[in-house]
Amino acid sequence: MTTSSAGPADAAAPHVPVRMCVICRERFAKAALTRYVKDEHGNLSIDASMTSPGRGWYVCDKPECARRFASYRPAARRKGGKNA
């Protein structure tokens, strides 16, 4: 009886972070999306480095998503979780 010492086929594949477009709700590789964060004035601005602290909103490159995101206003997030 012969056995293979190789693990699963995807064991060598690198991990690719996945994020969801806030408009169309489709999932994409993080690198394929544009990340937006709120600036000091509360306006959404592009986070080109994708490393700014705080909540980020990701948008894909579909023209319809870009058009709809232009008027997007994110809701305030509650602090303290569900039961707070």
Describe the structure.
This protein has 84 residues and is mainly β. It has a domain at 17-69: Hypothetical Cytosolic Protein, Chain: A, CATH 3.30.1230.10. Helices cover 8% and strands 20% of the residues. The chain contains one helix and five strands. It has one helix at residues 63-69; strands at residues 18-20, 27-29, 34-38, 44-46, 57-59. The strands form two sheets. The chain has a three-stranded antiparallel β-sheet, covered by helices on one side. Strands 1-2 form a two-stranded antiparallel ribbon. The mean pLDDT is 85.
CATH topology type of the domain at 17-69:
Hypothetical Cytosolic Protein, Chain: A
- Given helix and strand content, the structural type is mainly beta
Radius of gyration: 19 Å
Distance N to C terminus: 60 Å
Task: Set down the secondary structure blueprint.
Layout: E1 18-20, E2 27-29, E3 34-38, E4 44-46, E5 57-59, H1 63-69
Antiparallel strand pairs: 1-2, 3-4, 3-5
Describe the structure concisely for a colleague.
The chain is mainly beta and 84 residues long. It has one helix spanning 63-69; strands at 18-20, 27-29, 34-38, 44-46, 57-59. The strands form 2 sheets. It has a 3-stranded antiparallel sheet, covered by helices on one side. Strands 1-2 form a two-stranded antiparallel sheet.
